[in-house]
Amino acid sequence: MLTIIEVARLCHEANRAYCLALGDTSQVAWADAPEWQRQSAVNGVEFICINQDASPSASHESWLKEKLENGWKYGPVKDADKKEHPCCVPYDQLPPEQRAKDYIFGAIVRTCVNIGVSAAFLK
Q1: What is the rounded distance in angstroms from the CA atom of residue 111 to the CA atom of residue 71?
Q2: For residue 38, which of 64, 9, 63 has the smallest C-alpha distance?
Q3: What 3-state DSSP class applies to 90?
Q4: Cα gap 121→7, rounded to integer Å
Q5: Which of 10, 88, 102, 103 could be 74's S-S partner, Cβ–Cβ 3.0 to 4.6 Å?
Q6: pLDDT per residue of the chain (123 residues) written in tens, 0 to 9
Q7: Is the dihedral of CA 46, 50, 55, 61 positive or negative?
Q8: Which of the 8 DSSP states describes residue 27?
Q9: What are phi and psi of 111, to 5 degrees?
């Protein structure tokens, strides 16, 4: 059975692969990701597990709330040192290729839940 960390890693790596397909090389592998980035993925998995009917926009808004609470703000380029991110905007202001990330992330989590991996980490 997969743990919540393993599901978060799946989501992170799928997001990284999607970003690479778009020409975005800013995403590092899970093994190289800083703790705050890994924890953000875990938080996203937990949000969807608790709110299985959540829309992609709700998932993004949860992510955005977390970012803003941690001092992040909008910036044209992702910069962890400055805590700037181009996706620090309301969901309806994201370009379609960025909205797709929320669909992909949610689909992975829901698939894992549907095949029974949630029992390992929702107790």
Answers
A1: 32
A2: 9
A3: coil
A4: 10
A5: 88
A6: 788 999 999 999 999 999 999 999 989 999 999 999 999 999 999 999 999 999 999 999 999 999 999 999 999 999 999 999 999 999 999 999 999 999 999 999 999 988 865 444 544
A7: negative
A8: P
A9: -65, -45
